Amino acid sequence: MASDAGLISGRLALTWLIGGEWRFHPARFLMTAIAIAVGVALGFAVHLVNGSALASFDGAMRGVSGGAELSIRGTSPLGFDERVYPRVVRAAGVADASPVVRLDARIGDARVAVLGVDVIRAAMVTPSLIGLRPNGPDTSNDAAFDEAMLFLSRRALVLTKSQIGAQVQVAANGRTASFRVAGTLAATDDAAVGVIDIAAAQWRFARLGRIDRLDLKLSDRAIAEPALAALLPRDAIVSTASAQNTQGDALSRAYRVNLDMLALVALLTGGFLVYSAQSLSVVRRQRAFALLRTLGMPQGGVVAAVIVEGIAIGLVGSAVGLAAGYGLAWAAIHWFGGDLGAGYFGRGNARVVFQPVAALGFFALGMLAACLGSALPARVAARAAPAAALKNAGDVLDPRQPVAWWPAAVLLVAGGGAALLPAIAGLPVFGFLGMALMLAGGVAGVPWFARTLLAPLARRQSGAVPGQLAVRHLYGAPGEAATALCGIVASTALMIAMATMVTSFRGAVDDWLGDVLGADLYARTTSGASFDPGTRRRMAATPGIATVAFSRQLPLTIAADRPPISLIARPERNSRDPLLVVIERAASLPAGALPIWVSEPAQRLYGWDPGETITLPIAGETRFVVAAIWRDYGRQAGAVIIDEGDYQRLTGDEGRDELSVTLTPGQDADRVAAAITARLPATLRGQVEITQPATLRRFALTLFDRSFAVTYLLEAVAILVGLAGVAATMSAQTIAREREFGMLRHLGLTRGQLTTMLATEGAMVGLTGALAGIGLGLLLAQVLIHVINPQSFNWTMATRVPVGTLIGVAVALTGAAAATAVLAGRRATARSAVQSVREDW
Question: What's the pLDDT at 432?
Answer without folding.
Answer: 87
